[in-house]
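Allow me, if you will, to draw on your knowledge of protein folds for a short while. I am sending you one protein, given as its amino acid sequence and as whole-number tokens for its backbone shapes. Kindly check, if you would, that the fold set down in the tokens agrees with what the sequence suggests. The record follows directly beneath this note:
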Amino acid sequence: MTGAKTGGTRPPQQSRIPAGPPSKRGPDSFHLRFAERKETLKNFYQVLHQAVESGNNDHLQAALYGILEVIKTDPLADYDKFVQAYQDPNIQLEI
């Protein structure tokens, strides 16, 4: 992005969804949220399998803790707030 100013307030990987009708505002957050959870769980399960194979109890505990934290977290806990903000054409969302 040439000429874009971040002002040091946002990490470079963060992007903005412009205000406007939902059909023109960017990717579907619902699918992204679950895809992120899926990838995180996949990685934890890989660590878990490697820990079992190698007998590494520290990695085993860390993987199990990570898996439990992901599944304890409700992915839709703040979804109503997101939908309201997403439908408001005056709000710019950051992802």
Q: What stands out?
A: Strands lie at 16-17, 93-94. Residues 30 and 79 are 8 Å apart (CA to CA). The chain has three helices and two strands. Residues 29-54 form the longest helix (26 residues).
